[in-house]
Design goal:
Elements: E1 2-4, E2 7-9, H1 21-25, E3 26-29, E4 32-38, E5 47-51, E6 56-59, H2 65-68, H3 82-87, E7 115-119, H4 125-128, E8 139-143, H5 144-156, E9 174-177, E10 183-185, E11 188-195, E12 202-208, E13 213-216, H6 227-240, E14 244-248, H7 260-272, E15 278-281, H8 287-299, E16 304-307, H9 308-320, E17 336-340, H10 345-350, E18 356-358, H11 359-368, E19 372-374, H12 380-384, E20 393-396, H13 404-419, E21 424-426, H14 435-445, E22 449-453, H15 458-466
Parallel strand pairs: 6-7, 7-8, 8-9, 13-14, 14-22, 15-19, 15-20, 16-17, 16-19, 17-18, 20-21
Antiparallel strand pairs: 1-2, 3-4, 4-5, 5-6, 10-11, 11-12, 12-13
Helix pairs in contact: 5-9, 7-8, 14-15
């Protein structure tokens, strides 16, 4: 049981006596019953089941990591399978939503289901973590960029015999879409429309039935480089007339209203005044942030040193995503180098034409060259063993720790930086819409009803938005 603003939320789906379930977890719009199975009681973990008279569709298939961290510590203790997550109340107990496995961890005969489709808004794990556990009788729809991310993780991750990452035969279920493509799913018609977010290839969805129209924002923002994408989604909502708007509400308290352009300007100011090494940390899938760092490095005559996994992801996007191709620079240039501790021979061969170094053998040379080292946390101990140049700094371009466990981990990083006498800066803008912008969106769409998810303050934010 959890409390949000004094309201009881029963998060154990095995408890059928929950007095709040009908008002907080279920809602009816026309003939559609909406089940908020995840994302209703905190940030992330979005999983929404839309149920018509005959058919069902699912919007996002994520997990809330704050719940996951109550029981698991990677790599010491990890989930053994979907049944365990259901038993712990982390994943909803909707049996025909999931794949069936035999005792050896192989696919078994799949359950019959009237769930027509699962729609993935973007490839952040709080929206798609359960994807490898999807019933193989369900069609999975995702954008082309999301499919590239999925294929990338298939390439670098090992299949788990006892665990969640078992993508066996999932490709047969996946269909990719483009913006404004109308997808018929039984009694539903689903239209994906692009939005701007910190992960490229993000979408919102408009779901229509005979007597109801529902819009779901996914994760979106108005302060990124592609805010016109979000404007397209808003315009489509206005044109169709929305009965229910389901919106994310990540930001509410202590919000910094910086744009990505503002981040780039702050990065330039700090980097240009530093003579030493630049240690940087930001999300690999945030291509806008990578561009900001790349442009700042160019202006300051610095190179980038990144993990080989980051380089491989950028390579995949540049080769396979025609829309992102022009935004990703030449990865084979002398300006970009990737490091590895150990690497699969298959991946090493794939990256043979790129600049690679082994951390154990070559790191000292690149510290002397005063690169910007991204994903520095992975090799912080190795960095500490070298002579770090004076006037070196660290920059965190990601959200601050949001729970006790991540705060403890962050403090360990700070302790290492203190040991090395390296000060740190936090230069970041959110991948999520700001409250004043969301209020304007709500007023512009003029939906009949509103629900806020993906938020620690859904009720008070809803009150603010409708005031």
């Amino acid at each position: 049981m959890k409390r949000i603003l004094g309201i009881r939320l029963i998060t154990d789906f095995h408890d059928d006596t929950s007095w709040l379930m009908s008002s907080m977890l279920r809602k009816r719009i026309g003939s559609i019953e909406i089940h908020f199975l995840g994302g209703f009681d905190g940030v992330g973990g979005n999983l929404i089941l839309l149920e018509g008279k005959r058919d069902k569709v699912v919007l996002d298939f994520g997990i809330q990591f704050s719940k996951l961290r109550r029981y698991y510590t990677w790599p010491i203790r990890t989930p053994t399978g979907i049944e365990e997550l259901i038993d712990l109340g982390i994943a909803p107990n909707i049996r025909d939503l999931y794949a069936c496995w035999d005792k050896e961890g192989n696919l078994a005969k799949q359950r019959d289901t009237n769930i027509q489709a699962i729609f993935i808004s973007h490839y952040h794990l709080d929206h798609c973590y359960l994807l490898p556990q999807a019933n193989r009788n369900i069609t999975i729809y995702m954008g082309k960029t999301t499919k590239i991310f999925f294929d990338y993780y298939k390439k670098i991750k090992r299949r788990e015999r006892k665990g969640l990452w078992r993508p066996d035969n999932l490709d047969q279920c996946i269909r990719t879409f483009r913006s404004y493509q109308e997808i018929e799913c039984g009694e539903f018609k689903v239209t994906p429309i692009h939005v701007d977010h910190s992960s490229p290839g993000s979408y919102g969805f408009i779901v229509e039935s005979k007597d109801a129209t529902i819009a779901y924002t996914g994760d979106f923002r108005f302060h990124g480089p592609k805010k016109e994408l979000t404007s397209d989604f808003i315009q489509a909502c206005k044109e169709r007339g929305i009965d229910l708007l389901i919106t994310e509400g990540t930001n509410f308290f202590d919000v910094s209203s910086v744009s990505e352009e503002g981040v780039k300007n702050q990065l330039y100011e700090v980097v240009s005044k530093s003579e030493g090494l630049i240690l940087a940390s930001f999300g690999m899938k945030d291509i806008d942030r990578f561009r900001s760092y790349y442009e700042v490095a160019m202006k300051n005559d610095r190179g980038l040193l990144m993990s080989y996994k980051h380089l491989l992801l950028l390579k995949e996007l540049k080769e396979k995503d025609e829309k992102l191709r022009s935004t990703i620079p030449d990865l084979k240039s002398d300006m970009i180098t990737a490091y590895y501790r150990s690497i699969d021979k298959r991946l090493l061969n794939e990256l043979r034409e790129y600049n690679l170094i082994c951390v154990r053998e070559d790191l000292s040379k690149y510290i002397d060259r005063r690169k910007i080292i991204t994903s520095f946390v992975e090799i912080l101990q190795e960095i500490s063993l070298r002579k770090v140049p004076p006037d070196s700094i660290a920059i965190f371009s990601e959200s601050e720790p949001i729970d006790e466990e991540s705060q403890i981990e962050f403090e360990k990083i700070v302790n290492w930086l203190e040991h090395l006498a390296i000060p740190s800066y936090r230069i970041h803008c959110s991948g999520h819409i700001y409250p004043f912008q969301l209020r304007s969106v709500v007023k512009e769409i003029k939906q009949k009803e509103l629900e806020v998810i993906h938020s620690n303050y859904p009720l008070v934010l809803r009150k603010y938005l409708l005031s």
